[in-house]
Amino acid sequence: MSSAVAPTPEYELPEGYTHIYSGKVRDLYKTPDDRLLFVASDRISAYDWVLPTPIPDKGRILTAMSIWWFDRLSDLVPNHVITTNVPDSVARRAMVCHRLDMFPVECVARGYLTGSGLTEYQAQKSVCGVNLPPGLKDGSKLPKTIFTPATKAELGEHDENVTFDEVVAAIGQDEAQQLRRLTTLVYDRAASIAAERGLILADTKLEFGSRPDGTIVLADEVLTPDSSRYWPADEWEPGHAQPSFDKQYVRDWLTSPASGWDRHSGEAPPALPDDVVEKTRAKYVEAYERLTGKRFA
Ligand SMILES: C[C@H](c1ccccc1)n1cc(-c2ncnc(N)c2C#N)cn1
Description:
Keywords: ATP-binding, Ligase, Nucleotide-binding, Purine biosynthesis. With 297 residues, the chain is of the alpha+beta class. The chain is built from 6 helices and 18 strands. The strands form 6 sheets. It has a 5-stranded antiparallel sheet with strand order 1-2-3-7-6. The chain has a 4-stranded antiparallel sheet with strand order 12-9-15-18, covered by helices on one side. A hairpin with a 5-residue loop joins β2 and β3. The mean pLDDT is 96.
């Protein structure tokens, strides 16, 4: 299905759970006691499409990764997770969360230049109004971590990079400064932990909300391969697109003659072959095990 169509969630929930919203790979429900159930599906997206073939355990692996990161970040910023005690149909792939007043900002931190940041840099030698030195290439390490916020796009659309001043105009100076400070703090800690495990955290997208008392809280999923770019450090070579830690097998197959698919055709991509599914699942397991030092059961 194209990225413009919200998928129908694949699981039944008990009476009293109300489906609120589905993104490409995540689903949000209201719980019977008016909290939120944040569900990570096994859906995988590539080239702006939700692929027809799920990756077994992807949602469980990425939920375990989020929980691990939330725990390691709790001294920097509180998070929205209440419990992982969830209905059996979404066991280990869901979190019950506090309902927050979400900031309308995708809080992106970048330690490396690629993707939309590279495109903007190539056009104007800056990203989100942050000036950068000349001579940077795809995959270049940035002199320091930069905050490159974006507006939240509708399903199927791309987020639009905005300047810090535009964030100030949207939410006020104080909260904009808090989001920038927290986003770069979280990124810097996570990038340091990932580097110790041989992984480059090139960038990440965080979402924050606020409690009624104004406390800023880290929400959504955090530091998963769906919200972040992870690269194997031993393959890092600025000057070209870096291999995606988790989606390279999928991208390589989809763009190979074997798939029979033209990503520019507007046609939906085909189902993935079993070996691509298995190798992709193994990459998610590897990312979890390398980061956490724990076996994925
Ligand atoms: C974008 C993201 C999303 C999640 C799941 C599926 C599709 C999109 N989303 C998160 C909230 C949200 N709202 C209020 N309180 C919260 N704690 C959260 C969270 N997380 C609303 N949307």
